[in-house]
Amino acid sequence: MALIGLVGLVVLPFVLFRANRIVQGEPLRAWEALGDSGIALVAVLGIALASLVIRTRLSVRLAICGGALLGLSIFVGLAASALIPEGDNFARVSAGSGFWLMAFAFALAGADALARLGLRPLARIGVLASVLAGLAGILMSGLWDDIDVLREYQSRAGAFWRELQVHLFLAFGAVGAAIAIGVPLGIVCYRIPRVRAGILGTLNVVQTVPSIALFGLLIAPMAWIGANIPGAAALGIAGIGYAPAFVALFAYSLLPMVSNTVVGLDGVPRDANEAARGMGMTNGQRLTQILLPLAFPVILTGIRIVLVQNIGLAVIAGLIGGGGLGTFVFQGITQTAMPLVLLGAIPAVVMAFAAAIILDAGVELSQGRKSTSR
Amino acid sequence: MIEIENLSKHYDGRAVVDDVTLAVADGEIAAIVGTSGSGKTTLLRMINRLVEPTSGTVRIDGRDILDQPPYQLRRQIGYAIQGHGLFPHHDVARNIATVPRLLGWDKAKIAARVDELLTLFQLEPEAYRHRMPHELSGGQKQRVGVARALAAGPAVLLMDEPFGALDPIIRAKAQEDLLDIQRRLGTTIVLVTHDMDEAIKLGNKIAVMSDGKVRQYAAPEEIIAAPADDFVLAMLGSGDRAFRLLSLKTAGQAVGPGPADGKPITAAASLREAYAEMLWSRREALPVERDGAIVGRVTRAACEAEATRP
Do B153 and B161 form a contact (C-beta atoms < 8 A)? Predict the structure, then answer.
């Protein structure tokens, strides 16, 4: 890990400078971009990297990684500001492979130390919150304003927030719909074993269709619905746009929701279920007081899988005009503008990561409430 | 009073319970004993309609159990099962309160009832009320399971191998506690077990079942003295019959006048224990002690007289 970082530190460029968006970038190492303070930065980062090799306390390690990441973030911003001539709106500075590699090395080492610290669920959410707050602080301070990704953001801030909303609507809406339909469907599978194989089999087939193919396959039927069913077009249902994207995400979400519900219900201790019947609970009372609460951690795991998957998958919706952060990704690809791709991709990754951490903590909390652990 | 008449249960044309007729009087414990697959559990579960009978009737206090919806019937009948079946996500108090909550009792009444039951089962309410099931020992879980079954004060309690998961020492204690509580509350109990010793110890009457039929339904003394057929005999273990008879009587019931040396035995101990002690310590007679005073002696001859076929 330290070796990867060292390569990033010495050999690879820290930032790339372009006179405008299209030309080939000029790679600059840290000391070339920042002068004397760059040499100091290299020295400090070198020491930080070396400290990763020796065995230190986990908390110390974590602090070193956090500090190094913060330092990297600050200096990449400073480098960008230093390189771009005052008032030049065309020049672009992007983080170079050296920056990314070092960020990767420290993030990995930090995450590893964090995992080995074995923090309690709420503490993990706290760490996440402070990292996100730090990120927000850097963004608001304007430190990064001269970096290319934010340059792209500045020129389309309105569109960014709009597409982010669409993205969240697609991801969370599809999960919500999948919960609303999938949990009852899972209960049906649990209650009536004869339909179980059929429902799960069908959903399995849906799951195996490649995502782009599914988006494509939905174009024709959705277009037909939009054209022939009154009111559907008014809701925005058409062959392309957010409707097929929503339906596709929903379809992918359904299998994990249904199967996790079934597995969760199957895992309810037989004698607890039996006792609930024997003591005179009605079927509804047994479902709401015994079965669903005991199956909840597994169902929540399903929600976590689906939500993280959807935040990522919703990027592809950009391809069929469904909107969302994918819009920037595909625009960037067609214009070979990497910063634009990153503008779409980085928020999606951050959101997926945050959702995973929060829901994992939630799963652990809900399990701790009932048994086994401790 | 539980009256079971010509009760049968068929699965795919095969009779699991075959034309069973028996009655359990108020305040009695009926032990249903049999090998696995004898239909004893199915018979028990037909009483609270966890299994619906193919034919025949069950009446509790004269009322046909089919007269009301199953869930209402079950709220009036206690039900305790092997492995206790506690709800792992509810604490002890909430577990015990299950049926009272279903019946819509008010909170204060439920809380008072929970504490009363915990005390009855020798669990300090302050310490145990808010424990989760996984924080209890096996014996404590079993006691909470029975307390939960008795929470709404049912006249009838059904128990399916309630002590099956306990080790022998805790089981003996649990059996005595159950007898004690049953005497105090006067609950009518139907208990399923595969263990003849348990049936003899707990049952006022024993129903021996095999292949879905009740082979014999009688008091323990009669079952031991006059087994109805070879199956009942096999369940008793013919070699142990004399000792089983001895285990039914206490030293206090066979006490006679006269002196005896050595360590006394309590009047509540069974003759089986007394006889074993005599053999072990090479004595012809033991002093019998009741409430701290020697009240007489029990002799080998007295034991042997009790142990012969009546």
Answer: no
